[in-house]
Structure prediction request, 269 residues.
Amino acid sequence: MSDLPGIVITGASGRMGQMLIRIVHESGKARLVGAVERTGHDWIGRDLGEMMGGAANGVIVTDDPLEAFSGAQAVIDFTAPDATVAFAKLAAQARLTHVIGTTGMTEAHIAQLAPCARHAVIVRAGNMSLGVNLLTQLTKKVAQALDADWDIEVIEAHHNRKVDAPSGTALMLGEAAAEGRGIALTQNSESGRDGITGARSPGAIGFSAIRGGDIVGEHDVLFAGQGERLILRHVATDRAIFARGALKAALWGQDKAPGEYDMLDVLGL
Ligand SMILES: NC(=O)C1=CN([C@@H]2O[C@H](COP(=O)(O)OP(=O)(O)OC[C@H]3O[C@@H](n4cnc5c(N)ncnc54)[C@H](OP(=O)(O)O)[C@@H]3O)[C@@H](O)[C@H]2O)C=CC1
Ligand SMILES: O=C(O)C1=N[C@H](C(=O)O)C[C@H](O)C1
Prediction:
């Protein structure tokens, strides 16, 4: 039996689930020990390798997360908000590092993670890529340098299957801009403009979302001044960047004290 940390992937059949399975398998840094899908899913009881279109790998997809978690050191979870909260409670029980990529979580969802983080390491980020996490730091710096006459808009584009808006990344960038400007995003956010909206509120941070085709994820932070504009941009062309970041977080979490962390902690930014 290898000493490599054992990892469970939840939402195994999803876009990110399948990418994570591939990246963990190819990494040589961790063992894939479990795969979870919801009750009634076609993959339940079947071999994960075969479901992914390859050779059998002996990992049987289950709808019993606690059983899957019992032989693991970490769970990587890119699913949906209610499912993530339920997984957090079980990961805390099993003392696993819980890497959360799920977006669209409300304050009520997030509040339920705090008690879990008393028992286990939780790493949560709306975007696990190095580029976007670096972009949050740049955004904060630019927002700090420019005065409130510069309007800040976050524009994001994603594939046509995405269910939440603004994206988790857009919110991270908005938070970074608000922090740089020394304001609370909750009091200064403007999104969903349609119809006679009135003029833009001074100092607001705006959000716009585009949905179409197979766009992996694109984010612009636009600083619009009088006579000039500054645009910070990240373009994701491959979901592997998110999966690599998530695996890094799962390995990083192995020797950390219980608590809530993000990718800035993992990447040391
Ligand atoms: N932080 C980051 O870097 C990134 C975050 N994301 C986020 O990750 C999440 C997933 O994205 P994506 O992979 O594209 O979405 P998909 O819909 O392709 O995958 C989600 C998977 O989770 C499964 N799932 C949902 N509820 C449960 C449950 N209760 N138990 C087990 N499995 C469950 C779904 O099953 P079913 O189909 O049966 O519902 C599906 O297989 C989204 O919130 C997205 O925004 C995505 C990319 C990067
Ligand atoms: O749903 C997606 O696909 C993505 N979701 C994340 C988000 O909401 O920002 C990260 C990435 O942009 C892809």
